[in-house]
Amino acid sequence: MRVLVVEDDADTSLFIAQGLREFGHEVVVAHNGRTGLEKAMGDAFDVLIVDRMLPELDGLALVRSLRGENSTTPILMLTAVAGIADRVEGLNAGTDDYLVKPFALSELTARIHALARRTSGRADPHRLILGDIVLDLHRRTVERAGRRILLQPREFALLAELMRNSHRVMTRTMLLERVWDFDFDPKTNLVETLVSRLRSKLNEGFERDPIETVRGAGYIMRVD
Amino acid sequence: MFARFWRSTSGLVAVVAVGFSLATLAIGFSAYEVTHEALEEQLDHRVANETAALLTEAHADGISDLADEIRLRESARSTASLEYLLLDSSGRTIAGSMIADSAVKEGYEEFFRYHRAGTRGVAQALATPVPGGMLVVAADRRDLIEIDHTLATLFMGALLAMLIAGISSAALIGLATQRRLERIETTAQAIMAGDFTRRVPRDGSGSEFDRLAGVVNQMLERIGSLVANLREVSGDVAHDLRTPLTRLHNSLDRALTETDAQVRTQRIEEARHQASELLEVFAAILRITEVEGMAATLPRPALDLSDLVEQMAENYRPNMEDSGHIFRTQIQPGLTLSGDRRLLKQAIANLLDNSLRHTPPGTQVTLGAERKEYSVCIIVSDDGPGVEPSELGRLLQRFARSERSRSTPGHGLGLALVAAIAAAHGGRAEVESNKGFRVTLTFPTAASQSWAAQTARQELGQPHEKA
């Protein structure tokens, strides 16, 4: 995956670039908004990581210019403040996701993987299938190996999100945003509790647990 | 220079005065012209009428009879200011006492100069040929000129009065405005010099200046409370972060001197954990600050509050059950509120987090939402141990923690954020502890602006109460 990182802080951009290269991605770094925009327009990238505050051309203006040129490259915005205003402004400007600094590298990689995947086309199918699990979004039913599993609405939403992003790490924060619609981290371990409830319902009578816990990162759903 | 002058009140009034004067001048000039023309026309008319009358009377008997008529009229002086002259075909005077200063031509003559018995005059004249000579009837312009003069004097006087009134009112209004604004200026300068208690004096008249003074005072109250708040917060932050920073420092110190690699890694891990906790505290402080600063700009679309609260109940039910709490809801259907969905969710989440963490298993926790007369409320209550009444007042402030919650982890920022979120929505948070603990978030509904304004005023009054 080719990633363009537009970030003026040398430490942060190095931290991101090294981290992504370890995952085998190709990383191009721009240190101000203007060169960032030039590089983004002149070359093809799978994902852009853009800081909100940049010299010469700020992050929001960069995103607006790109979107004005009909670029559809997914953009993740990094913000330094608590992010409420940026959430509203950034999403209006055309960013696809945002991440508040400081962040863990695992969070960043999980998010750009999800972003790159989101644009790889494919409209939402009505049925999500993973191994022996079939989830029907219209009828709101779940079956495992043909056996009907009854889930609470929130459990259903969690399973759908995990299946939609199968074979990718979903972090706690990503799940909180997408399943709970929270942009904050509650003090109560809602995610862990719901995952454990989902697991017990999904795995009752089965050997294999399709939901894997990635320590320090999140959850991943997969079949071998 | 001029551009700057007319921006001042005096300048503005002066410009208006000059405008009015110019208008007066224009009106005066045209009135003068119209009157003048009308009078001239009237003179022409008189002359023509008189000529016609003379000709009719002398029709049968020719020029000598005409001369008799003229003499008769002149001796009677019945027609004031009308002059007559009858000339024969060679230009000699047959009758009439006036003497023309120039040659007489047929037709109207506007400025007909003549003299008679030592006086000179200008008249409007009509020369009409008659058999054997020329009849001239003239009306002196003396009256016309006099009226013209009077009119001109009148208009010039009006113009002068207008200019004087305009310029003096410009000066007076400018002076009055300046004097009133000086009170605000003096106050502002005193505040800049450091006296934050100064306010603009009000005269209670409700005039625009009095209202301005009122608004400025309100603004000063708000700034004052923000400054006080800022001082308090920076103090709190410094105080409350010193302890965890010291711990972090010590962990790193111990890691440095540690010789056993495994223990050393453990120490560093410890330090990392402490650092991430500190970052969390900073994130929470930043969020509170941002929410507080967003009150005016926060986008607030209308949302289904009943549904939102119901969802939050559903989110927390599994954890409530797992921890042995009895979780109930009392949510009125169909409640709406204009607000930020995620911030409202966070407020409710913080309250439910608190209930879960600070009450023992078996405690009943109730999440409710209801409509009041001019507001909607979100209520989270429990029948747990509650807090000391003396602690209630401080509970909504940053880093406030009740004695009972000392043993559980937390930074005392959750309720402060709840209060900030309520305030950003024009509402307020209230805490009670009679039996158990209860937090009520009250949001004014759109139809109760006055209520919101009242609340705002109450908030403005707070710094004084504290002092």
Write the layout of secondary structure elements.
The complex is a heterodimer of chains A (224) and B (467).
Chain A: E1 2-6, H1 10-22, E2 26-30, H2 33-42, E3 47-51, H3 59-68, E4 75-79, H4 84-93, E5 97-100, H5 105-118, E6 127-130, E7 133-136, E8 141-144, E9 147-149, H6 153-164, E10 169-171, H7 172-180, H8 190-203, E11 211-214, E12 218-221
Parallel strand pairs in A: 1-2, 1-3, 3-4, 4-5
Antiparallel strand pairs in A: 6-7, 7-8, 8-9, 10-12, 11-12
Helix pairs in contact in A: 2-3, 6-7, 6-8
Chain B: H1 2-5, H2 9-57, H3 62-76, E1 82-88, E2 93-95, E3 99-100, E4 107-116, E5 119-130, E6 133-140, H4 142-192, H5 208-257, H6 261-293, E7 302-304, H7 305-322, E8 326-331, E9 336-338, H8 341-358, E10 364-371, E11 375-382, H9 389-392, H10 414-424, E12 428-432, E13 437-444, H11 449-466
Parallel strand pairs in B: 8-10
Antiparallel strand pairs in B: 1-2, 1-6, 3-4, 4-5, 5-6, 7-9, 10-11, 11-13, 12-13
Helix pairs in contact in B: 2-4, 5-6, 5-11, 6-10, 7-8, 8-10
Describe the structure.
- The complex is a heterodimer of chains A (224) and B (467).
- With 224 residues, chain A is of the alpha/beta class.
- Chain A has 2 domains: 2-118, Response regulator (Rossmann fold), CATH 3.40.50.2300; 127-221, Arc Repressor Mutant, subunit A.
- Chain A contains 8 helices and 12 strands.
- Chain A has helices at 10-22, 33-42, 59-68, 84-93, 105-118, 153-164, 172-180, 190-203; strands spanning 2-6, 26-30, 47-51, 75-79, 97-100, 127-130, 133-136, 141-144, 147-149, 169-171, 211-214, 218-221.
- The radius of gyration of chain A is 19 Å and the shape is elongated.
- The mean pLDDT of chain A is 88.
- Chain B has 467 residues and is α+β, with helices and mostly antiparallel strands.
- Chain B has 3 domains: 2-147, Beta-Lactamase; 223-293, Helix Hairpins (Orthogonal Bundle); 302-466, Heat Shock Protein 90, CATH 3.30.565.
- Chain B is 58% helix and 18% strand.
- Chain B is built from 11 helices and 13 strands.
- Chain B has helices at 2-5, 9-57, 62-76, 142-192, 208-257, 261-293, 305-322, 341-358, 389-392, 414-424, 449-466, and strands at residues 82-88, 93-95, 99-100, 107-116, 119-130, 133-140, 302-304, 326-331, 336-338, 364-371, 375-382, 428-432, 437-444.
- In chain B, a hairpin with a 6-residue loop joins β3 (99-100) and β4.
- In chain B, α2 packs antiparallel against α4, α6 (261-293) runs parallel beside α10 (414-424) and α7 runs parallel beside α8.
- Chain B is rod-shaped and about 150 Å long.
